[in-house]
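INFO batch 0412 | record 1 of 1 | parsing
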Amino acid sequence: MKNQILVCTHGGIGNQLFQILYARLLSEKYGVKKITYFHASKYKRKAYFELSQFDNLELAQGFNKLLLRLRLPKIFEKLKLSNSGKIKLLNRIILDSYFQEPCLYRKISRSAITTQIKEFRKIILLPKELSFDYKTKSIFHLRLGDFFNSESEQILFIKTQTKKISSNSIVISNRDDLFSSKEFISGNDFKINYLKTSQFDSLTLILLFSSFSKVSTNGSTLAFWGAIFGEADLVLNNLNNSHEKKLNEMYTLFKL
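INFO prediction complete | emitting tokens
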């Protein structure tokens, strides 16, 4: 029986790109032409699957859909029977994790990773009609919302981070409403070059990030992929944070 690769995707497009990348790297290893996927959307932050443009993906049906909905790799992880997000059941390799651990990619050749990322860039960026010209500038992305416990924490973070922002930087956030509020504006003693992006979809945001020569962020996977596709410098704001530390390591592994 031929091997099958099944992947349960979850989270936004930044997370989905890691999940599909890892599945495609395994498909190359095992000679599997089609990857079967199911997107789990029952999370606090509702996110839909946004990578259907990849032609080697097929939506799970029947028994494969049932297997993916069972989230077996997650169950194995809780039982301490696996910690890789990957299990094999008969001829099926079932994947269910964020796949943002650098150790997973150190086992794979750099040429295989580079080939896939170049293909990703072609699929993700080329179809977009919008164009940005910021190559002489840097972008500072303040990732707010579910990264923080309260709005006061978000405001404190903004005030701390804006001290690091140069006048040559464009600033964006996922909280346009916060930056636009009269109370917030009147209470600040700094001026920043803020770009509203609430009307941008995820793919357009990746395109935007890829248009800068330098991308700074506090752990955004969207910013990570934009920096990778645009071959920009990536600056993570807090390398003491485990998530940002991992992204920084993977930037080194992934950069073209």
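INFO post-check: The mean pLDDT is 89.
INFO record closed
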